[in-house]
Amino acid sequence: MLFKEHLKKYLGEEDIDKLINALTLERTHSLIINPNKIDEITFHTMFPKVKKHPFLKNVFYYNPKDYEFGKSYLFDNGLFYIVDASSLLVSYFLNPKENSLILDMCAAPGGKTISTSFYYKNIELISNDISFQRALTLSSNIEKVGLSNISVVCGDFLKINNELNNSFDYIILDAPCSGSAMFRKMDEMEKDWSYEKVLKQQKIQIDLLNKAIDLVKPEGFIIYSTCSFSFEEDEDVILSVLKNRNDVEVIPLPHIDGEYRSKELNEAIHIFPHLYNGEGQFIAKLQKKKTTSSIKNITDKKIGNYKSNELDNFLNEYKLDFNCITNLNNQIYAHNFNFTLPSNIKFIRKGINICEIKNKNIFIPSFNLAHYLSSEISIKLDEKEAKSYLHGDTIKRNDLKKGYYVVSFNKINLGFVKCVNGILKNFYPKGLRH
Ligand SMILES: C[S@@+](CC[C@H](N)C(=O)[O-])C[C@H]1O[C@@H](n2cnc3c(N)ncnc32)[C@H](O)[C@@H]1O
Question: How far is the centre of ligand 1, averaged over its atoms, from the C-alpha of 280 (Å)?
Fold first, then answer.
């Protein structure tokens, strides 16, 4: 079936033409600022040509001809995260209560995880991706923005038994899909599109949604989203699941400007680029019904698997107060909760990566720690020094004692240096040097 043809499942001729026409136009560009580092007014003053999103907090549109944000050191150092304004609606609609445990089932590269963590305080996230490479990218994106409340895992939740059923307060299921809503962002998505692919993805989406319903606690919520315009991957997935189980219901999403609702599933919304300033997205919210099945607590505050006096000194030096310390392949992580997960779900990070152990008692502070710490404790670089630092050069400073320091420019932490005999040795990651 052709792309245009298959849209007739839920759209009239006129809507299809408008949608297809919008797909030929230039895509939008947007970002969300990191509220732990900057506020809207300061950001707008720094970049006066950006345009504020009408209702999403901390979100700005920009023209890449005005600002090459993706290439900026500010992106590498977590001042903002570049993400589509439609996809941010997932975290907007999630609206979790404080102290919730959230599973982001298909999380890489991290748009929903990071924006959820930016928007809501006192929540804990487990963010998973089946692809190890993509889970590493997710982990490195979290590192740049300096977040400490996220554990990244890699595994296939479809392959676990019942051990995690009824465990999560909220689940984000941003399912793998045929990607038609990404045509403007990635040409290869358009070339790669076929109706067979849509049907293949639908099967996986139904399995993932059924699993998400098993995993969420009674009265817990699931946000199901795709970046596909196909009825088969959107409404039809929800309707098929609802037809086959009675422990879940669909919850109407609040109205927003620029939404499209189909009559087949009026509670959910489509985001179309001709109606909303962003790429495409489908979003539905479900709630598991109250049942008698018991809630499973997979969270505990155990100490973790690592302890040493030298590390305690290191933690005290940076005033880090976390319940658990874990060593994963000589990388030390600090986190407030431990989670008991099945052995086929592997941890890639647990909270904040604070340092690497080089030789038994030598701790090298991490890039992640630099971005987690406040810039108040940093050594302020001037513009010339900051340029040298980002380039990977050493810097001369005679006023500092031997030891590690965070360096910053304009209140943005850049990374660590080690001062030896008046020379600041550069610890800025090699892959990010300009
Ligand atoms: C649409 S992307 C997710 C985008 C992400 N939520 C974000 O906002 O940046 C879908 C992801 O699902 C992953 N995936 C595919 N099948 C999966 C499965 N069975 N379990 C977990 N992740 C899966 C893919 O590797 C891909 O990274």
Answer: 17
